[in-house]
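#lab-general

N.A. 3:47 PM
ok so I finally got the sequence cleaned up, no stray characters, all 165 residues accounted for. can someone with queue access submit it? mine expired

B.Y. 3:52 PM
send it over

N.A. 3:53 PM
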Amino acid sequence: MLYLQTRWFGVFLHDGEKLLDYVLFPRDRESLKERIEKIWRGEILEEEKRLIKNKKVISSDRRLTSISEYADNIPFLKIQPEDFGFDYNDLRKILLDIAGKKVDEELGREDLQIIQMVKNIDELVKISNILSERIREWKNLSIHHGIEIVEKLKREVDKSIEEIK
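B.Y. 4:20 PM
back already:
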């Protein structure tokens, strides 16, 4: 049986005991970062397709079910990045870059709740200004003048009622 194993630095084909074939990813950080992001998005890499072309393989990666048979417990071959000229420091730097990018995306994203809160505050400020304006107008009105107008209106209403009778 052939088993497919994808690591952050390459794709490996083994029989459970020894490495039979492999394709290493380019060593530059951007290429490695691009492949790691593709794996996280659930995409199948060209290197994976190329390595298993015309072969029946088993993988424990659900992402690869369209090109390989899935099995939970397959033999795991210990493949060290140092054996192929890669370093875990490279992986650490790549993951820090990816994490920084994701944080920037999240911080740059417009959050609907915050936008709604700001709009509500703007609306409340407008309402507050209108109420303040009305209160200033009421303060400028003379109470005595208002009473005189109401009394005059009452006399006219009473007079109209008497005429109707």
